[in-house]
Specification:
The protein contains 2 helices and 3 strands; from the N terminus they run E-H-E-E-H. By secondary structure, it is an alpha+beta fold. It has a single domain, classed as Uracil-DNA glycosylase-like domain (Uracil-DNA Glycosylase, subunit E, 3-Layer(aba) Sandwich), CATH 3.40.470.10. A 3-stranded mixed β-sheet has the order 1-3-2. Strand 2 (29-35) and strand 3 form a beta hairpin. The longest helix has 21 residues, at 55-75. It is globular, with a radius of gyration of 13 Å. The two termini are 22 Å apart.
C-alpha cells in the first residue's frame, strides 16, 4: 500500500470494516483513525441487495465522500 500512497480508503459496508478492524460499533462516514496516512471512510454498500438505505441516503453518503475527495485533491494541487 505504501507504494501507491492512497489518500482515502473506503469500506463498502460496516461488515467489511468490522471484519478488518474487529470493531463492533462503527459509524458511517469518516473514521477517527487512518491507515498508513490514508483517511478511512465507511460507506453503505451500493448493492441492490442493500435495502436498508434509500437511494437518497446512498446518494447523500457518496456525495459527502466525493466532496471530501475534491477538497483533498485541490489542497494537494
Amino acid at each position: 500500500m505504501n507504494a501507491y500512497k492512497p489518500r482515502y480508503i473506503a469500506f463498502l459496508g460496516k461488515a467489511a470494516y468490522q471484519g478488518f478492524f474487529q470493531k463492533k460499533d462503527v459509524i458511517w462516514g469518516i473514521q477517527e483513525h487512518d491507515i498508513a496516512g490514508a483517511t478511512v471512510w465507511v460507506l453503505p454498500n451500493p448493492s441492490g441487495l442493500n435495502r436498508s438505505f434509500s437511494l437518497a441516503a446512498l446518494v447523500d453518503a457518496y456525495e459527502k465522500f466525493r466532496h471530501a475527495l475534491v477538497r483533498k485533491t485541490t489542497q494537494h494541487s
